[in-house]
Write a structure and sequence with these properties.
alpha+beta, 6-stranded antiparallel beta sheet, 6 strands, Mago nashi protein
Length: 134
Amino acid sequence: MDKHLLLKAVKADSDMAGPSEWKTILWSVFSDGSYTIRVSFIPEQTQSRSVEKNGTMKKDRFARLCAALVPEWKINLYSCACDGAAWQFEQYSPEGTDVKSTGELRAIFGNEVLERIAALLPGKSFVRDQTGRF
């Protein structure tokens, strides 16, 4: 089976932040369990900065993430982010077509399915090292 993009997740910081604070985190998880994480920061003057990490998820965690993608995603999400973060998720088929999407960036507070998916995303220690939080 060919490797394809399985899940794209974006977390955007909606707190008021200044230069050099993180702005967005993008996870790309592929069908073989490999992933890429890109953390982008608010530019200091004209220089934007981002850091990237590539890796492979442990098999049991990847299996749990795949299982978490199965239920229907309820999109009636809160419009205000209670934790200062907004999320967007997109799941893809092997053909590369969008299977499920949450649409625009929104809070996931209280949505058990999407909170579970977010909790299973790889690279938490990398994200925490870069941003000071997950």
